[in-house]
Amino acid sequence: MSKIRAGILAATGSVGQRFVEHLIDHPLFEITALTGSPRTAGKPYGDGVNWLLEGDVPEEVAQMIVQPTEPNLDVDVIFSALPTAEARELEPKFAEAGYPVLTNASPFRMDPLVPLLIPEVNPEHSQLIPHQQEQYGRKGFIVANANCSSTSIVLPLKILQEAYGLEATIVTTMQAISGAGYPGVPSLDILGNVVPHIGGEDGKLQSEPIKMCGTYVDGKIEPAPFKCSAQANRVPVVDGHLASISVKLGRRVTIEEVAELFNNWYPAQDILDLPSSPEKVLIYRPEDNRPQPIKDKDAGNGLAWTVGRIRECPVFDIRFMAITHNTLRGAASGSVLNAELLVKQGFIKAA
Amino acid sequence: MSKIRAGILAATGSVGQRFVEHLIDHPLFEITALTGSPRTAGKPYGDGVNWLLEGDVPEEVAQMIVQPTEPNLDVDVIFSALPTAEARELEPKFAEAGYPVLTNASPFRMDPLVPLLIPEVNPEHSQLIPHQQEQYGRKGFIVANANCSSTSIVLPLKILQEAYGLEATIVTTMQAISGAGYPGVPSLDILGNVVPHIGGEDGKLQSEPIKMCGTYVDGKIEPAPFKCSAQANRVPVVDGHLASISVKLGRRVTIEEVAELFNNWYPAQDILDLPSSPEKVLIYRPEDNRPQPIKDKDAGNGLAWTVGRIRECPVFDIRFMAITHNTLRGAASGSVLNAELLVKQGFIKAA
Amino acid sequence: MSKIRAGILAATGSVGQRFVEHLIDHPLFEITALTGSPRTAGKPYGDGVNWLLEGDVPEEVAQMIVQPTEPNLDVDVIFSALPTAEARELEPKFAEAGYPVLTNASPFRMDPLVPLLIPEVNPEHSQLIPHQQEQYGRKGFIVANANCSSTSIVLPLKILQEAYGLEATIVTTMQAISGAGYPGVPSLDILGNVVPHIGGEDGKLQSEPIKMCGTYVDGKIEPAPFKCSAQANRVPVVDGHLASISVKLGRRVTIEEVAELFNNWYPAQDILDLPSSPEKVLIYRPEDNRPQPIKDKDAGNGLAWTVGRIRECPVFDIRFMAITHNTLRGAASGSVLNAELLVKQGFIKAA
Amino acid sequence: MSKIRAGILAATGSVGQRFVEHLIDHPLFEITALTGSPRTAGKPYGDGVNWLLEGDVPEEVAQMIVQPTEPNLDVDVIFSALPTAEARELEPKFAEAGYPVLTNASPFRMDPLVPLLIPEVNPEHSQLIPHQQEQYGRKGFIVANANCSSTSIVLPLKILQEAYGLEATIVTTMQAISGAGYPGVPSLDILGNVVPHIGGEDGKLQSEPIKMCGTYVDGKIEPAPFKCSAQANRVPVVDGHLASISVKLGRRVTIEEVAELFNNWYPAQDILDLPSSPEKVLIYRPEDNRPQPIKDKDAGNGLAWTVGRIRECPVFDIRFMAITHNTLRGAASGSVLNAELLVKQGFIKAA
What we know:
The structure is a homotetramer. By secondary structure, chain A is α/β, with parallel strands linked by helices. The first copy, chain A, has helices spanning 14-23, 45-48, 59-62, 84-96, 128-136, 148-164, 187-190, 201-212, 255-263, 269-272, 293-296, 299-302, 328-344; strands at 4-9, 29-34, 77-80, 100-103, 141-144, 166-175, 215-217, 220-222, 227-234, 241-249, 282-285, 305-312, 318-324. Chain A is globular and about 60 Å long.
């Protein structure tokens, strides 16, 4: 079977580069278009990009000519790494032109007709797609993945919600500098420092998990019935968003119960079978000093969640720490996994 | 009036050096004895110490001979920077021998007869001293200052408790490497990383504020009636413990009310008059990215609290961030301020 | 005597802020004008500036209205923190309009009629000023201070040159991020990394010391007769440029001789008497692990040089390390000290 | 063919872990013994080790019982990660007992009968082995690999020496914290700092390259006829030793010549054919800001050299920068590559 042709919007940026990295040698997709700003459009990708990842620009794309970001690409699916303002303007145009758009950007995440999708959390939310197409008069559609910090916390929350009921959560994150892209955070701001503010992030952390843990009913997502409070902080870490989480559950549990729940949790088999899925999606570390960014960010090729430090919370029920890799699971690789799910569900096809 | 003669136990360690730094040129105290381990005892202080602070060993003490840590020092007050195990063994001996002991160590902090003292929080807890002397048969006494992370959170909590009532707090800290002393945290563990564990710190954060915010009644401290949950994290920051705090209050408040409460708060005048007291003990920063360790740790010569990012908490009532300098307010300078209070209260005198 | 009225060009940038910091409470100068870009001009300085230094914007200037950078300021002397391109265009206009211009910028450093001045190195180079005024038809003049990395190495080189003769030097620097201004170096480039390139810096390091160590003869500077090779590197350090230096001298010396030379060196008394001069301009550290940025950058209020690790060089004669504070001695404070010298020499006067 | 049985001495330390990592799934060797200190001996490796590398202890060795470091192991070759003092005492005993000992430790590096071996630099130095065996009365032998910082500079120096002649080199290194092992460098010493001293390292840098670039003649190594001056610095980088190098060559060359020389250089084919050899041993980067630790340390699976910033040296002939991964090429992987060479040369065999 021939591969599904993929285009990457804003392929020269830091998230765009992660898309390139992930889609090289992908079993389902092949990169057939890369777009960039007027500054880079028309140049070979290898010349236009300031490659931030290890090694060199992959040979497969180094000579590919960067195209303008216009909805006339010869592809079957779009991966968008567009910045917020451009995403708001351009992604609907791609959707109207018939493309499935898998986006990392934030503008449409809370749109009631756009699935905010993580295969292990809410694969059934893709049922919004035909409603989105019908109500917005689109041949294509937009599917968003969550903010990288929301991603870190949502799978453990969903698992707790399903097992015990979840009433409230209070979260503090410690987030990596790569989450701000490039050039991103000035070194004078963050070397030896913590900045207790990331624009808009607290709000995303407080709203996205509630949508993602919600229930699909008749073309709508009913929000999950828990409250979420969050404070996002930037720390001098390169990759990996770490979260400190307290949860008020629907019933009393022991920390052993929760450890066992996390340790033995697996998504449905058809999710585990997705090409990019790690074998172990959720890793429980019993050591008293884990998870840590430098040791746990790359678990499952950067697609696994790692949790640890499960303890009693003197105020709520349970405290724990969770981490994911912010530019892999929390961005590009998360979108690719979403696309793999949508292929399996029949929403994306080769032309 | 002649100065009060002060001895510093474990004067060569990182907290001991901060004591030296603070007591040089102090209006009430003069350093007349420095003690150290067998390795350094007998040497001039300037030779025995691996000076970690800026500049050189102060001339006033460079030639002072380091003495063994035994309760026969020619001093009126003891500042103890002893490590935990030695503090547990030696500090009671100094108290029995008649010395007032101002300690940074943890063993006696939760002793019901030992004041866990911060002048701006609970100056009246020094009333425990005669009870301690009587029940333990000591001529001297021990007064402890709080753990450096507890210190960061306790003053804002106390102010909220007094103003509105406080029912519960959930805290996550981001703590500096200097809190672990020297050599302390290996660089391979913390460079570009966060370690979600500091031995014993979660427990201290959960218990000490409740004692400090408690009420002195008839020779005892009745614990404050709020619950406290905490997670301590080590971050690659040199100085300054930052805390993310959510509070459930006794009544509904607006964020403006809380900002104004913090902004206009002052301790009693006799506390403000202590020689080391900063003019502004609690600094409220309205900027959306403050407080930060590198910008706010040194406020008030390292003795002020800085708070900011006051926001509504979707789960409780209010969230905010707070910081203090961990080796100044949270350690040596905090002890010196305690001693200044005890001089004013008459518990410490020149011989 | 009334103070000399000083204006700061580009006062809102990182070097401009250092000028403000140094000139507050200066015994000779008072700030009477601050200029900024069109974005900040017209606003109170406290509103237009993103204050990067510790503490808050000094009260004395917080309400001062930022002016456009035009040569109509009501001042007696100009301190310029302009970026390169603007400096090239605007500084000559200020000089033509009659202002003495003390500049941090690079465009005129190698101009044969512009003194590249460090009071302790080449105070007699100010004799170029009347020649500059005559040949360029200026009522005012431009005096430059050296690049921050050149500054680190030039005083020790000059002292060696005078004592023993200097034939060649090979230098590798490790430079702080504050040298790049704000936002400057992206954190993703430098956290846990070294970047072996700073645009144009190698060339400045290789040429400026030769001019500064040169001889004033009849309206010209004859370059010093040594060769200089340099490699500049950026390291994850906030402040302080450290240099590793090998020198080929005019005669054989022992390391003890050099240590004694450095340890006992003082500038002429009239230089030592300048208001900002540190008591000890050159500090020799005998420890085997000094100088270090965090311990030595602030020596002499950031105006001293610190040298150490003097050793035999198996190829040349001597190796050693040197450091200065790049935004103080190497930038703003260095300019202020130059101005103090020029006041003493009569080139700058109150109106 | 059955694999050669390998034992790792001090397998629980940081270099020992790198040996484990490299020898898992090695085509020639299989780990059959791991030794450790009395604290860990007798325990399963997975319990005794504080695993510092990414991921978990490899399953293949997690249950292997750690043995005491005594010369009675059931192996054909020894990889030693012993610390200096123990290496000095124990490695000769292993050599006497008949084992080939590949060591990372320093005590025997400058022994005139011990090859200081890097396959790409001096494979013929293994001819010392029979002389070592004869003169020391050993059935086995010791082969050392170079200090991690010497390793970074020696291959480029050797290539220049062969091509143009080499008269002198002046070097300044910027070395990673992993070079000091674990716990190694205290974070308070290095976070945001540079330490211009690594015990003994300057001397190793100044002597080892001269031995390695020397000529084997009749059972002896005649030292290379160039002089070497070096200053080692510790920087806050996790892995990768970067060196700034100036060289005085035997004849004038252009920078293009040198770039081409480096770019087209390959070792002999039999060295390239060693199982661990990277395809490209020496990588020339033409960008003006390379090599950098975070981008270039892992080139060639951590076994390649990367060079760049080739420029004219105003004092000597050429300047450039070079980097290798200090715990891979500069330690464990370098030893394994040495062992692969010795297998090919017949000095190591399966029993």
